[in-house]
Specification:
There is one protein chain. The protein is of the alpha/beta class. The protein has one domain: Immunoglobulin-like (Sandwich), CATH 2.60.40. It has helices at residues 2-17, 24-32; strands at 36-38, 44-51, 62-69, 75-82, 88-94, 103-109, 112-118, 125-131. The strands form 2 sheets. The protein has a 4-stranded mixed sheet with strand order 1-5-2-8, with no helix packed on it. A hairpin with a 5-residue loop joins strand 3 (62-69) and strand 4. The longest helix is centred in the N-terminal third of the chain and has 16 residues, at 2-17.
């Protein structure tokens, strides 16, 4: 019985060791693929390109949005996604009518931050650029 268990263990571990690591080309394709966050609440969507103050795309910036919709904003969604190597991220499934438009998409990366307003009522399918900058100092 013990021999059977050991034989099956070695067979499984051997088959796993034969799997190849992703090639550089596969890794590059994965980094270029635009991440999509689907809220599943409507037909609208927004594609963002996050850039730094030098207009270069920002990789792995975190983009967040809070969405209230439905009667009196009773339904809520909090979505978050990271950008790809091209600074792109896409949000889909956004309701066409939201409570207190426009929606504010906030992005951060290290000590940089930025935001962009988006109103799905006036532009259901949209593309926007979002520029990250150092935050302004708080006044006392």
């Amino acid at each position: 019985m013990l021999c059977l268990v050991l034989a099956s263990f070695f067979a499984v571990s051997d088959s796993q060791s034969n799997q190849k690591a992703p090639s550089r080309e596969q890794q590059a394709q994965a980094a270029a693929q635009v991440p999509v966050m689907d809220g599943g609440a409507g037909p609208c969507g927004l594609e963002l390109t996050v850039r730094d103050s030098d207009s270069k795309p920002v990789y792995d910036a975190t983009v967040k949005v809070h969405i209230a919709y439905g009667f009196a904003g009773a339904h809520r969604l909090d979505l978050q996604a990271g950008t790809n190597a091209g600074g792109k991220v896409k949000f889909t499934g956004i309701p066409a009518r939201v409570h207190r438009p426009p929606l504010e998409f906030n992005a951060t990366k290290d000590r940089l931050e930025g935001s962009v307003a988006y109103d799905p009522t006036s532009e259901c399918q949209a593309k926007h650029d979002l520029t990250l900058q150092k935050p302004k100092p708080q006044e006392p």
